[in-house]
Specification:
Length: 135
């Protein structure tokens, strides 16, 4: 199993802020997700003028889904400053819809203290809980 430091390093390694076109920037935020199968998938943010971009977390999740997995155990998001960040509302919602165990996803909130929070703590009264439990 990967440590928080290893997951952080994998995400931070992908940080590479750059302008792709006059309409699109990428790489200012990076994320790593660890799956229940022990695999790590990374992604970077893609920001567009039209709002059709993608957060680093959702990019990492898309990479994970593309590779046939859908259950996240841990998530690390690294901001351009190198500090750990928290997923936005859209990313939280996407993760909640992935798997019945998603409320258990551990999210790193501070690298120095190794503080974490669960996705369930961030989304305590999720609208889809009953439907998810019915399968």
């Amino acid at each position: 199993m990967y440590t928080w430091q290893e997951l952080y390093d994998m995400a931070k390694e992908r940080l590479n802020p750059r302008v792709l076109t006059p309409f699109m920037d990428a790489g200012g935020v990076a994320a790593a997700v660890l799956t229940d199968q022990g695999n790590v998938y990374v992604g970077v943010c893609i920001d567009t003028c039209s709002g059709l971009g993608m957060c680093a977390e959702r990019n990492a999740i898309a990479n994970m889904i593309t590779n046939g997995e859908s259950r996240i155990v841990k998530l690390v998001c690294v901001m351009g400053s190198g500090k750990v960040g928290s997923p936005c509302g859209a990313c939280r919602e996407m993760m909640m819809q992935l798997d019945a165990h998603s409320p258990e996803i551990e999210i790193l909130t501070d690298l120095e203290t190794l503080s974490t929070v669960t996705l369930g703590d961030l989304v305590p009264d999720w609208w889809g809980t009953e439907r998810m439990q019915r399968g």
